[in-house]
Design goal:
Blueprint (H helix, E strand, L loop, with lengths): L19 H10 L4 H8 L3 H9 L1 E2 L2 E2 L4 H11 L11 H4 L6 H11 L1
Length: 108
């Protein structure tokens, strides 16, 4: 069975996900203890330990995309996001009938 790009795992697409060693390096590079990293990421300390070990009760543990993105945000100096900062500049305002009317009249 052939898979499409959306069906492939990240490693199949040539993207290497965050490994336990890279996660630990990220935490240590920021000078965070496991408890500090857990607090910053909104997780329990035990999850940080699982991510750094790479398994939980003998089963592999993958670091979720949301955690990887949060690590990137924290590394970039972002501790929290309310959904409006910076996004408003990227999202175009809704097109209203008044806007279309004003645009039409200005073209005449």
């Amino acid at each position: 069975m052939k898979t499409t790009g959306s069906d492939q795992s990240l490693s199949d697409q040539g993207f290497e996900t965050m490994t336990p060693d890279r996660f630990r390096q990220w935490r240590k590079a920021l000078g965070l203890k496991q408890k500090d990293a857990a607090d910053r990421l909104g997780l329990k300390k035990r999850m940080i330990q699982y991510y750094e070990k790479g398994d939980r009760d003998g089963r592999p543990v993958e670091i979720p995309k949301s955690v990887r993105l949060a690590c990137f945000a924290i590394s970039s100096g972002i501790d929290d996001f309310n959904g409006t900062d910076s996004v408003a500049a990227l999202v175009p305002a809704p097109d209203t009938a008044a806007d279309r009317a004003a645009e039409t009249s200005s073209q005449d």
